[in-house]
Amino acid sequence: MEIETSARLHLSLIDLNGNEGRIDGGIGITLNQPSIKLECVENHDKTEIIFDENVGKITNFDEYAQKINEACTAMNNYLQTDKTYTFTLKKAYPIHHGLGLGTQLLLSTAKLVAQLNEKEMNSYQLAKIVQRGGTSGIGVRSFESGGFIIDGGHKMDEKITFLPSSASKVSPPPVLVRYDFPKDWNIILAIPGENESVSGQHEVNIFEKYTPVKIEDVEKICYLTLMKLMPSVLEEDIISFGDAINKIQQLGFKKIERDLQKDKINQTIEYMKNMGIPAVGMSSFGPTCFGITDSKVSKIKNDLKEFLGEEGNLIVTKGKNHGSIIK
Question: Measured between alpha carbons, how far is residue 51 from residues 47, 137, 201, 240 in Å?
Fold first, then answer.
């Protein structure tokens, strides 16, 4: 049995102030590429993980194996079984690049184990078991249904402090909005070669140091999201969409994320903005930068490749309006 799922952009967290009794909230887009392809078969011996020779440009294989083992163990415990499996990772993309690899790999593993045990479970049930979605619900809903997604965060009597998803064990938040992302809009991923990934305790420390953010920023993000961003997706108005994204990227916790990056990240974003790309920014904690446009991208692609240099990576993709697929 094989599953395929893909990356997501996380455009911004909404409320890291909590003045009204809720925190978090997220805005994101499911991507068509890059993607994960994971195969699983029961083996009646011991659980093993194989990395296909065509898996892609990934390193730190131990981290991928750790997440597969973690999800497999959690599912076995939940299902009260001691079955063993052979997992083959056939396709993947880099971890800690702001594209949500961890959540997608954990959910993919969990879904395969559930299916092989003839258990029909949705992504929210699986996310609770593997403990993802404790801050943003974007990755969980992307796995379930794809599209443009906004979630409503968590009540503060459920989650009492500001933490990233990797360190928060509460249930995934409710989804407020899920729209099809316009099929004619191109999404350009520009990944500078020089970066320092933010994860683990380092990410926790940043949340602890820089929260709560100013309530004025939260109010502005909410206003822009409700009265500009959401209508622009429905009306396929790339100019209004871009203006909303560009403003949100300069507010609240997203501004903090951007300010903590090396110069190359913001230089890349500014370069894309100067090329006339309507919506530009950084996904999650980076280093992946994105540009969204409804125009042809051949010249943009060539210019960006030259700007990024040999160490950088460039992907041109679109939004994806469906969830993971099992074959």
Answer: 14, 28, 27, 43
Decide: helix, strand or coil at residue 306: helix
Query: For the chain, what are the domain ranges?
Result: 2-179, 186-318
2-179: CATH architecture = 2-Layer Sandwich (3.30)
Residue 212: both structure tokens together: 């709560």
Q: DSSP code of 213?
A: P
DSSP assignment of 84-131: -EEEEEEE---SSSSS-HHHHHHHHHHHHHHHHTT----HHHHHHHHT
Distance of CA 184 to the CA centre of its chain: 21
Classified as helix, coil or strand, 80 is coil
Is pTM beyond 0.85? Reply is yes
Q: What is the largest CA-CA distance in the chain?
A: 57
The β-bridge relationship of strands 148-151 and 154-155 is unpaired
Give the pair of three-digit tokens for residue 23.
């925190």
Residue in the structure block whose two tokens are 């064990």? 169
Instruction: Say whether domain 186-318 belongs to CATH 3.30.450.40.
Output: no
What confidence tens digit (pLDDT) does each residue in 115-143 have?
999 999 999 999 999 999 999 999 999 99
Measured in whole angstroms, the distance separating CA 327 from the mean position of its chain's CA atoms is 23
